[in-house]
Specification:
The complex is a heterodimer of chains A (111) and B (115).
Chain A (H helix, E strand, L loop, with lengths): L4 E3 L2 E5 L4 E6 L6 E7 L5 E8 L4 E4 L2 E6 L4 E6 L8 E8 L7 E2 L3 E6 L1
Parallel strand pairs in A: 2-11
Antiparallel strand pairs in A: 1-3, 3-8, 4-5, 4-9, 6-7, 7-8, 9-10, 9-11
Chain B lengths: L4 E3 L2 E4 L5 E6 L6 E7 L6 E7 L2 E5 L7 E4 L6 E5 L8 E8 L9 E2 L3 E5 L1
Parallel strand pairs in B: 2-11
Antiparallel strand pairs in B: 1-3, 3-8, 4-5, 4-9, 5-6, 7-8, 9-10, 9-11
The chains are: A mainly beta (111), B mainly beta (115).
Amino acid sequence: SQQGEEDPQALSIQEGENATMNCSYKTSINNLQWYRQNSGRGLVHLILIRSNEREKHSGRLRVTLDTSKKSSSLLITASRAADTASYFCATSKAAGNKLTFGGGTRVLVKP
Amino acid sequence: DTGVSQDPRHKITKRGQNVTFRCDPISEHNRLYWYRQTLGQGPEFLTYFQNEAQLEKSRLLSDRFSAERPKGSFSTLEIQRTEQGDSAMYLCASSPSGGQEGRQYFGPGTRLTVT
């Protein structure tokens, strides 16, 4: 079974717009990670945020974490057609342990 | 760093046959994970190793599934008497212990189709 839900399940935007997706989870965590997956491929790690952090940035990515609400958000700014992919959040109860993934958000960026 | 590799990339088999997949992790990584992903879903954890020790197995890993990592390097995942419900992408990942707080490096996956 999966840890939580992602919202929305699908998102369609124009190039240059921002994309925001949310992730909720159920149990206490050590860290939360976001991964990207292009169709039929493996997962690429995007960013990791620890449970004692509230916000993190990496290039055009901004991640927030609210442990009181057990939720996280991923913002992609100034989207590009190459950002078209599925995005998954994953939680871990301890560093190095298994990841528990959400159901993913499928993002389509139209040129 | 050549990345995590998996072989084969695609496998089509008939119901009832046995299949074996191989994963080669990044060479200095001592943790290795197997996940399964069905279409439109997120990956689900199957099992993981630290060196050659299998530390955790999911309840998804029925007695038809077995995973090994005999020398703490590559790993194999075998499915016996395959069923149509086994059709999925099987993903392998590795990580160094103590490194980057648990970031995992994924291979390209093996797509299994059971007919």
